[in-house]
Amino acid sequence: MEILVKYNFLFNGSKYYELNYYENIFYFVNILNIIISYSIVINFIISIFTNYKIESLLLSSYYVLDLCLIYNLNSNHLKKLINRNITLILPIKFQNYLKIMIYFSFCLSLLLATIITLLFNYSNYHCSIVENNWSNILNTYCLFFLTFYSINIKVSSIIYFLVFINNLTDNLKQFIHLVKDNNPDINNLVYQYLEIRHKYNQIIFVFNSIISNIVSFCIIPTFDLIFKQFNNELFDIVYYMNFIYFVLFCIVFHIYTNIIDDNIKYLKSLSDKNNNIKDYIIRKKNLYTMQNDSDLTNINLNEINLKHFMLNLENGRSLDWLILSEVLMQPLRPIEIFGIEISNSTIITKIVTVFIFILIGWQIM
């Protein structure tokens, strides 16, 4: 598993911990190939200054996103999180999911890169990025590897996030079953939930930059494509491909974050209505009440100590319930975009709401 992850990182221009001699050679050759491939993007961006079109500027933002994601993939925090998950946390089932998704990312990138290159050479396919005076061979070479790297980088950046969140969702569902089974050890429940919340916050902290970059660089091109009604004369297949990527990312991200939020809301309701947990706050006054007796000599000190002990136990159980309730009420770590904190399950809803308001304003104008 670690070898597969290592080569996935290498294909995306990033080192995954220690490399041997041959892997270092592969890494530097791959970095050189990325530089050559993305040189066509640099030329494309320069050409915008002389032949400005808003569609070209927005198309270039997708490739700038690739460079930002390469930088994010080189983060030590990300590498530590991935290494910890694949060696200690992920069960075999989710490790197999990760393997399948890494292979899928590579094969999809290779397939789409081949198709787009063939369309460029053997059809009237419109590709804005290669509209230059370079030789056809160089354009073909750059287009193939540029498309391969662009797709593989974007897909690889989110498959780790999706697998880790999927595993966390599974852990949360198991925890809910544990609570519903009337588990008497409320301290153990608190500890397990804190572990789940810590893992979630850690995942959001590490992937915040990746998610923020995807949303920031894709949202305006997506709106522009929709406002101009998918005009094929203005947008090429690469633009459409990135649009589909962003839409799928939004859908999947919205589904998983909503599942987690819904499960936590359900846990909060369980803390109020679960009979076993409610026993922690129900007073059994008959165990420690005393009969009124004006003669203090008739009071049994052993009985007082025993009932005082029982009262302390009930107070301790009530405190356990308060701790569980307080822990469940604490918010999860939100995503930060441009320094603005946004609740994870509402990001996509707010994007859609903004889009609707802009669309209405566009139609009025």
Radius of gyration: 28 Å
The secondary-structure element order is HHHHHHHHHHEEH
Which regions contain 5 or more consecutive residues with pLDDT less than 50? none
Largest sheet: 2 strands, antiparallel
What spatial form do the alpha-carbon principal axes imply?
Answer: elongated
**In oligomeric terms, what are we looking at?**
single chain
The helix tally amounts to: 11
How much is the average pLDDT?
A: 80
- Which structural class matches the secondary elements? mainly alpha
Kindly state the number of beta strands. Answer: 2
Q: Strands of the biggest beta sheet: in what spatial order? A: 1-2
What are the main properties of this structure?
365 residues, mainly alpha, two-stranded antiparallel sheet, 11 helices, 2 strands, 77% helix, elongated
Quick take:
This protein has 365 residues and is mainly alpha-helical. Helices cover 77% and strands 2% of the residues.
Describe the model.
This protein is mostly helical and 365 residues long. The chain has helices at 2-11, 21-50, 54-73, 76-89, 92-122, 136-180, 186-227, 237-273, 275-278, 301-329, 347-364, and strands at 335-337, 340-342. The chain has a two-stranded antiparallel sheet with strand order 1-2. α6 (136-180) runs parallel beside α8 (237-273). The radius of gyration is 28 Å and the shape is elongated. The two termini are 55 Å apart. 26% of the residues are buried.
Fold topology:
Blueprint (H helix, E strand, L loop, with lengths): L1 H10 L9 H30 L3 H20 L2 H14 L2 H31 L13 H45 L5 H42 L9 H37 L1 H4 L22 H29 L5 E3 L2 E3 L4 H18 L1
Antiparallel strand pairs: 1-2
